[in-house]
Amino acid sequence: MLSDIEKVLYKLKEVRIINAIHNYASTLLTILFGLSLLMIFQNVSTSFMGVSWMQGWEPKTILNGFMALLPFLTVISVGYYCAQAYKFETIHIIMMSLCLWTGIIYQSDRDFQAFLKIETLAGAIVLPVVSVLIYQGIERINSYLFKGTRKQIPTSIISSLKSILNLCFGLLVVFLIVIVIKAVGIDVITPMHRILFEGVFKLYQYPVVFLIFVFMMQHFWYQGMHGDALISALFEPAIILATLFNMHAHANGYEARFIINATFYTNFVAVSGAGLTGGLLLSYYLVRKEKRIDVLDNASVSSVFNINEPLIFGIPIIMNDDFKMAFILAPMVTSTLAYFLTSIGLMKPYIYAVPWFIPFGIKGLIGTGGDLKTLLFEIILAIIVICIYLPATKKYVRNYKQQGELDGKSNL
Question: Are residues 74 and 214 in the same domain?
Answer without folding.
Answer: no
